[in-house]
Structure formats: structure tokens, C-alpha cells
Amino acid sequence: MDQPVQIWPDADGTLQIELAGDIDYTNSSAVVSAIKAAAIEPGPPAIRIDLDAVTFLDSSGIGVLIITSQLADTLGAAYTVVRPGRNVFEQLRLTGLVDLFGIVAPGD
Amino acid sequence: MTEVEAPQVYLDTPAVDDAALVQQIFDVVPGEVTLWAPIRDAAGTVVDFVVEAASPEATDVLGRRGRGLIGVRVSTTYPAVIGTERWRVYERVLATGKGAHVPPFTYPGNNEGIATSARYSMKIARLGGKLLINWVTLEDENRRHDRLRQTERLGNLGWGEWDLRSGHVEWSDQMYAIYGRDPAEGPIDVGLRDPLIVDGDESILAGALEALARGERTDVTYRIRVGGEVKYLRAVADGVRDTTGQLIKIYGIVQDVTVRETARTRLAAVERRLAEQQRSLEAEHRLASQLQGIILPIPDEPINLPGLRVALRYLPAEHISHVGGDWYHAAALPNGSVLLAVGDVAGHGIRAATTMAQLRHALRALTVTSMDPAVLMSHLNRLMCDLAGEMATEIGGEPAETRSGDAPNSTATAVIARYDGATRSLTWTHAGHPVPLLTRDGVTGPLSRLPHPPGLLLGVRPDAVYRNVTVTLDLGDVLLFYTDGLVENRRRSLEEGLASVIRTVDDAIGSRPHQPLTALLARLHRANPEDDTCVLAARPLATQDQS
């Protein structure tokens, strides 16, 4: 299986986080650890999570988004979650996170 | 060796000196037959014989055949015979003319240094002044021995004989090999207890001996210990008895079946382990549902609340570690309305179950202070946020996500509703939870739009705002609260999962509009085996139904 997470800093210092595949109880702890390790050291001005390649989020996958948002708060970084697929967007809408994170609906 | 009277052989004719004529007869005779002419010394004593004629099949111990035997001197070629009882039989037949039959005997031969002993049975008659010797080569002793040895070796078979009168025991070579014993030591005296037998198996041999004494053939498998190794031996034995029925001899074959037995034992062990595993798996499942049953008892029968009949179904996750945090609440409030709730704590296992129990008990306690679903939800949210903080402290600052098997954070979803039987109004709110379903006039769909804004998951932000939506129910409506295990599947969208549940409910209610709620719930299946599922179905009761 592909890596569930890839992280790299942009030219302007924004921490780009690309999640892929199913983010669930089997890998969410590892994903959070990877994000924390990458974010805490540089203290990025912004953290951006790209959900384009995500196929499924279970409750712990949703937890990854929440913990990262709390991490961004602590670091004083701007936080955005972008490009969810239709199903993932529907899930995030139901959980109230679309409003909380200002996620844009697919196709908009 | 003794001769046996053979009265049928009387060929005492006048002297036949024409050996050539005899040879002509022999040429067309089957079997092995030769004509021996005696050679006498001056005193007339037979000192030797010379072969004068031989049938084509006649073969001696040295491999000479047919006419090739003519002229052979018995004394020089078969010196072993001189002075034996058989030699005296020759003399007597020659003297008396009375034929003789020599029972099987072994002739030790020597052909160019190779021992080729052979076994013969012989008929002797006098023909003129000569001897007619007819013999049957029974078997090449060495070949037979080789064959037996190979059979024993190939079959891991040993052969033994025990003479009960003399106490004499005889073993074949392979028997020694099986018992790991030097043939020079001689066989084990089985009259005593087999000194190598494994404790506990003596009774098997004792039982076999008793069976033999009763005249039965025995077939037993017992164990011996040879050089620290345990061997399984199968013994098939039979007895020989005298005219009085007394057992006088036991003979039998012993087969080393260790390989087969150990394979069978191993197979049995594997099968046993598999069965144990199966049992422990079943026990795990039982434990999972028992655990759930203790924390969250699910009534089998519908419960009647003021103006509302409620039925519940809980489908545990397939694996114990996934036993989770699904919960429900259904109880009358002090003002005569009914509070309904269904929730789902993120993650699985004991921690999720503990959080679930805390939420459930908190909700019950909080109804004393408020009966407004949105207010109750805000309280639960703050409780969840507090719990998340407590957990972080509990583990000594170690990041929560490094704990294996736990969700990285402590969030939960829930739906809380209050139903007023007098007005049939249902006020509900949600926190990150799927919208309940409503079946009306045979059509199933979402209970209403989502509250606006949608209620955030519990445990994310202490200041999250929850809003109520109010709908009015009709008699005949069916209300369905569920957790996402019913619809969520990683290979299917929520929409598809929901559509499948809606179809199931529509079909059920379409075929039987007033079917019992439990029957309706029984039709629903969990979409996700990794997740547990809790479903609550409710139907408004007419006022006269109220108790």
C-alpha cells in the first residue's frame, strides 16, 4: 500500500500534508506522529492538508484532522483542509468539521 | 532326519543296465530326477554313487543341469551327504528295494566360494541295482532369507517366536534392529516383562497375552523406549496349541509404526489446538457481547415509554478489540416526555467503552438540570473536552496518539431527541452524527434537514454550538436512530450505505406496515464488520395505548 501520508514544506514555509488511501485506526496514530514530528521543529506559518487521494476516513481518521488543527492552534499556524472527495466531504459535513475548518465542497 | 514310508514307490525291476534307455525316458519326464549307480568296494559296501542319467530339469546345488550331471560322483561333489542318515537311507533302499521319502532337508552347498545352500525334499526308489532319485528344490534358503530380511527391513517388520515349553525365544534380525539390540546379546526374554516398555503400556501386552491364552489372535500397539526415544510397535501375534488345547508357542510379527503414530499424534495435537483456538475465538466473541451487555444492557423486547414504543438492537463488531463505544438512551423525563439518544465514541476497546459509559450516565444525570437536547449536547461536549484533557494528563504528557489501539483523540458523535407524546413533537439535535431516518406512509428518508450549522463532533471545541430542529410525528411513523456502523463502509459511500438501509426498511414496512419493531430491526445488517452498531427504532403510540 502507498504511504498514507507525505509531508514537505513549501517555498513559503507552509507545511504541505498529503494524505492518501484509507486513514483509519490501523494507521492514524502513525500519521499523527509523522505530522507532529514534521510540524513542531520548523513551526510553520501554515499547515495545509490535502485530502484529494483519501478514499475513507473512520473516526480516528477524522481525529487526525482534529489533532492537526489543535497542533496548528498551538503553533499559531493557519490551518486549511482542502480537496476532499464527495464522500469524505459528506462525512466532514456531518461531523461539523466543514464549517469548523472552512472546507470548500468538491466541484465548487 | 527320518525317512517316511512311501509305499507307492516300488520300482524293483530286474537290472537296468541300459542307462541310455533310462536317459531317453528321463528326457521326456518333468521334474528333477536322476539315476544313481552304486560304486562298491571289495567288500560290497556302497562307497559312492555315480550319476548315470538325469532329467533335463534336474539341477544340483552347484547349478549343474540335466545331462551335465551325468558322470558326477556323489561323494566328491556332495561330500556332505556321506555318513548322514540320508546316506543310510540310500543304502537301505538299495538293499531292500523299498522306496523312501526324505522330508525336506537343507543341503549346504559351496559353489566357487559362494554359499548356496538349498532345500530339498526327496523320493528314492530302487531301479534294478541302482537308485532313482527324484527331488523337489523347495527354495533357495539364502534367497528366501534375503527376501525375508528385505521384507522385514522395508516394512520395518520384525519376526519373533516364543516357545512356552522350552522358554526359547527366537528373533529375526530386524527384530533386533527395532529393539536396538545386538543380535549377539540374544532376544529379550519376553516371558518376563518387556524391560523397554513405556510405563502404562504393560497392561496392553498383558492383555494381549491373555487374549492369546484364550485362543484369540492379537493386534496391539504399544510403546518401548530405546536409547531415549519412544518407539511405537504394532504386534500381531498368534499362538500354537497342543492337542489338549494348551498354548505352547507364540509367534508374531512386530512392526515399528513410530513414524505413522507420531504423525497421527501430531495431527491430533494440531486438530486439538485448532479446536482450542476455535473455542477461544468463540469465547472472545462471547466476552465481547458480555462486556457490552454489562455496560449497555439491550432489552430484547420493546419498551413502552409515554406515547412511544422503543426497540433496540446492538450488533457487536466482529473482533473484541473493536468492541466499541456505541450507546443509546431511552427514558421518560419528569415532565412526561421521553428522551432518546444514540451515540458513538471514536475508537474501540475498553477506553471507548469507558467513555461511552461516562457519556451515557452523564446524560441521565444532566436531564435533572435541562430537558433541552441542544443544551444537553453542549454539556456532553464540554464533558468530552474535559475527558480529552484528563486523558492527556493521565498518561503523563505522552502524546495520546502513541498509545496503540486507541484513537488519537477522544471524540464522539451523538443524536439527542425529546419526544412529547401529547403534541407528538420531536425536538432533536446532533453532534457530528448521521441524521435519524423517518418512515412515513411507507417511504423512508432523513428525519429532517441537518440543524444549521451542523453540530460539531463532541470533544473538539468546548465552545461548539448545538441547535435543535423540531418535527411532528404521525401515528404509524417509524423513527430510526442509528450509529454509522449501519451505513459506513470503506468501499461504499455513506449515501449508498444509507440507500441500502432505506430500501431494507421500505421493503419491510411495505410488506407489513405494522410489523413489530423488533422484527424490523432484525432485518437490518451491519455494513461494517469492523465497527459495532446500535439501532433504535421508535413508533408513536396513540394516547389510549399509553400506560
What is the structural class of chain B?
Answer: alpha+beta
Share of helical residues of chain B: 25-40%
- The CATH architecture classification of the largest domain in chain B is 4-Layer Sandwich
- Silhouette of chain A: globular
Envelope shape of chain B = rod-shaped
CATH superfamily of the largest domain in chain B: PPM-type phosphatase domain
Q: What is the tally of helical segments of chain A?
A: 4
Name the pair of protein chains with the most residues at their interface, and give those residue counts. A-B, 31 and 38 residues
**Strands ordered across the widest β-sheet of chain A:** 1-2-3-4
- CATH superfamily (homologous) name of chain A: STAS domain
The CATH class name of the largest domain in chain B reads: Alpha Beta
Number of strands of chain B: 24
Residue share in helices of chain A? 40-55%
The amount of beta strand of chain A, in percent, is 25-35%
Secondary structure elements and their pairing?
The complex is a heterodimer of chains A (108) and B (547).
Chain A lengths: L4 E5 L5 E9 L4 H13 L5 E12 L1 H17 L2 E5 L3 H9 L2 H5 L7
Parallel strand pairs in A: 2-3, 3-4
Antiparallel strand pairs in A: 1-2
Helix pairs in contact in A: 1-2
Chain B lengths: L3 E2 L13 H9 L4 E9 L5 E9 L19 H4 L7 H12 L3 E8 L2 E2 L2 E2 L2 E10 L2 E11 H14 L2 E7 L5 E3 L1 H6 L23 H12 L4 E9 L2 E13 L5 E10 L1 H38 L7 E3 L2 E8 L8 E9 L5 E11 H18 L6 H22 L17 E9 L4 E7 L5 E4 L2 E4 L22 E4 L5 E5 L11 H18 L5 H6 L10 E8 L7
Antiparallel strand pairs in B: 1-4, 2-3, 2-8, 4-7, 5-6, 7-8, 9-10, 9-13, 11-12, 12-13, 14-15, 15-24, 16-17, 17-18, 18-19, 19-22, 20-21, 20-23, 23-24
